[in-house]
Amino acid sequence: MTDHDGYDEGARERLVEEPPKRVDAPIRTPFERDRARVVHAAASRRLAAKTQVVGPQSDDFVRNRLTHSLEVAQVARDLSRALGSQPDIAETAALAHDLGHPPFGHNGERVLARLGEACGGFEGNAQTLRLITRLEAKTFDASGASVGLNLTRATLDACTKYPWPHGAADGPQGVHADGSPRTAVKFGVYADDRPVFDWLRRGAVGTRQCVEAQVMDLADDVAYSVHDIEDGIVAGRVDLTAIEPAAVWETVRDWYLPAASDDALDATLSGLRTVGSWPTTPYDGSRRSLGALKNLTSDLIGRFCGAVQHATYAASDGPFVRYAADLVVPEATRLEIAVLKGIAAHYVMRTDDRVALMHRQRELLAELVAVLLDRGPDALDRPFADDWHAAVDEPARLRVVIDQVASLTDASAVTWHQRLC
Asked: Which end of the chain is more exposed for a tag (fewer CB within 10 A), N or C?
C-alpha cells in the first residue's frame, strides 16, 4: 500500500524501528503484520475463556470474548473495505478491542475499577492499550523495556476506543444490573502509559477517534446487539414474539439512552419488526428455527452497516482514512442497536440468578486482589513478579496486582482463588 492511499510513513511507523524481513519471508504490509501479531498473542487465546455475557463454561453455543472478537473483526473488515479504508487496520483493532477485559467481563471490570483507585483506576480499553504496548512480550527498546507487540501508529490509534485519560473522562451514567449506580468512567490510557499514548496520537485533534477506530466501535456495537440477542434466544431467556416494552424501555434508558422516549422506542421496535426474518413464532430449537435465527442476525447486521455506509458516503467524499473523514451513524440505526442491546440486558443480564452470580464473582476478585497484595511476588507469575520488584511505591505494586488479575481467565481466577484464599 502506498502513501496516496492515505497511510503515510507516520501511519506505518513503529515505536521501535524493526529491521527488514528476510528476503525469503512472505511479503506483507505493515498492517498485515500487525494483524498477525494480535492473532498470535497469548492474550488473544485467553479470550476464549473469558465471559462475554453468559459464562463460557455454561454452554458450548454461547459466545465468549474470543468468538465475539472474531465476529466484530468480520463486521469491521467488511465495513472498512466498503469505505475504501485499510481493512487490516480495522480488523486488527476489532481483534484487539477486548484484550484488556478481566475475568467475568464488565462485572470484573467494575470491581477492579474500585479496587484500583489508588493507582489510577481500571478500564478495559486502557488495559488493552497497556497490554499491546507493554505487557504482551515481543519487542524491547534500547533500554530493555518492553514495548509490547510494537504495532504501527495507525493500528494502535485504531485500537483506542476512548482517546483520553481518566481525568478527562465524562462522569459515570446509568446503573448496573443490580440497580446500583455506575461509578466507573470510560477512558483509554493510564498515567504511566501516557508516553506511548501521546506518541500514537500524534496528528490527532483533541479526543477525536480516527475513522478506523470509529469502524471498530460501531462493529462492536453491532455484534454486541445482534449476537447477544441470538445467545439469549437459544438460551431460552429471550422471546422476540413476547417483548414487554415498558420494562425493556426502562433498561434501555438506565443502560444506554437516558433521554429516549417511549414513543421513539416503540417506533423503533415497530421498525425492527418489519425486517423480513423477524420471528413470528417462538424459537423451538429445531434446525429450521436455528436457520431462521441466523438469517435474522445476518439481516440485522446488513441493515445496520448498510445504513451507516450510505449515510457516511452522503456526508463526505472521503477518503475514509485516519482523520480525513468520520463515520456517520443515523439516529434510527443508533436507536435500533440500543433497543436490541436493551432487550438482551433486560432478559439476560438483569435476571435474579445472574445478579447473584455477579455478586459472588466480585467477591472472588476482591479477595484475590487482597491476597496477592499481601503475598507479593511469590504468588505472581514471573513477568508480574519482575514488575513488582521494579515498582517504586504502593500504587505501582497495586497496578502490578491489577495487571496480574486482569490477565486471568474466568476459570483461572477461580483456580487461583481456591489455591490462595
From this structure: C
Angle between helices 331-344 and 245-255 (to 10 degrees): 110
Provide the pLDDT for residue 51: 64
Question: Do 245 and 359 form a contact (C-beta atoms < 8 A)?
Answer: no
Asked whether the whole model's pTM tops 0.70, one would answer yes
Can you read off the three cell numbers belonging to residue 122? 481500571
> What is the spatial distance between Cα 108 and Cα 408, in angstroms, rounded to a whole number?
11
Please give the Cα distance from 52 to 62 (Å, whole number). Answer: 9
Q: How far apart are CA 272 and CA 252, in angstroms?
A: 16
466498503: which residue's cell? 82
The percentage of the chain sitting over the pLDDT mark of 90, rounded to a whole number, equals 81
Q: Which of 170, 211, 164 is nearest to 189 (CA)?
A: 164
Cβ–Cβ < 8 Å for 210, 34: no
C-alpha cell at 213: 477506530
Instruction: Report the pLDDT averaged over residues 377-388.
Output: 97
pLDDT, position 320: 95
CB within 8 A of 306, min separation 6: which ones?
A: none
Nearest-5° Cα angle at 48, 419 to 176: 80
pLDDT of 218-252, one tens digit each?
Answer: 999 999 899 989 989 998 999 999 999 999 999 99
Q: How confident is the model at residue 318 (pLDDT cuts 50, 70, 90)?
A: confident
The residue type of 394 is E
Please check whether residue 162 is in contact with residue 186, taking contact to mean a CB–CB distance below 8 angstroms.
yes
Angle between helices 352-375 and 105-115 (to 10 degrees): 40
Contact 188, 123 (CB under 8 A): yes
The mean pLDDT value of the chain amounts to 91
Contact predicate 405/368, CB 8 Å = yes
Residues 6+ apart with CB under 8 A from 186: 123, 125, 162, 169, 170
Q: Which of 260, 125, 144 is nearest to 185 (CA)?
A: 125
CA-CA-CA-CA torsion sign (339, 122, 49, 131): positive
What does the block give as the cell for 278?
A: 423477524
Q: Using one digit for the tens of pLDDT, what is the confidence trace for 336-351?
A: 999 999 999 999 877 7
Q: Which of 294, 159, 312 has its CA nearest to residue 227?
A: 294
Neighbour count for residue 338 (Cβ, 10 Å) = 21
